[in-house]
Amino acid sequence: MKDIYKESKNKGFTLVELIVVLVILAILAAILVPALLGYIDRAKGSQLLLRGNSIMKGLQAQLTTVYATAPEKDSNGDPYTVSSAVDEEHDGTGADFLAKVAKMVDMPSNGGFYYMTADTEAAPSPSAHDAWTLKYFMYYEGDEGAYFDGKSWEEGLTFTQAYEKIEEVSKSSEKHGILHQYPKND
């Protein structure tokens, strides 16, 4: 006769073995969850920066197009500047011009941007090229923001921090021109 007790004893796990495995899994989860959450946060920050950079490049491309086709004087006989070109070419407020740029990168509804050019010289003279180049740029989505100082991006900012940076530049020197905004918050 076979010993049934001996056969069944070798087929399962003991309660202690199961508890050890569960403890090991809990330790691994405790280590991995914060690392994964940090990865997700960094990815969201990178997405904001990539979208901001895309909008900035699209805006520069649109400004270059307007610069290349702009007459020397606007409809009032004044030198054609970035502001007058954007306003005159696009419904008097620049909203269509800027909406076209935002649509290129599928900007979310809670997003927006501010930008500055030198805005001091008429187009299309060669000396005016600098006036049509983006100098400072701020992009935001909700409460998160990123700021471009003309050379590099500063990311991980709140909307307020990024706005304070571009507003400070706007107030510090007239040579930077006008602070443009999209969407307009009138």
N-to-C series of helices and strands: HHHHEEEEHE
| Strand-pairing-aware structural class | alpha+beta
Q: What is the CA-atom radius of gyration, in angstroms?
A: 28 Å
Mean pLDDT: 77
Relevant terms:
single chain, 186 residues, alpha+beta, five-stranded antiparallel sheet, 5 helices
Q: How would you describe the overall organization of this protein?
A:
This protein is α+β, with helices and mostly antiparallel strands. The chain has one domain. Helix content is 50%, strand content 16%. It is built from 5 helices and 5 strands; from the N terminus they run H-H-H-H-E-E-E-E-H-E. The protein has helices spanning 4-9, 15-69, 82-89, 95-104, 159-172; strands at residues 111-117, 134-141, 144-148, 153-158, 179-182. Strands 4-3-2-1-5 form a 5-stranded antiparallel sheet, sandwiched between helices. The longest helix is centred in the N-terminal third of the chain and has 55 residues, at 15-69. The radius of gyration is 28 Å and the shape is elongated. The model has no long low-confidence stretch (mean pLDDT 77).
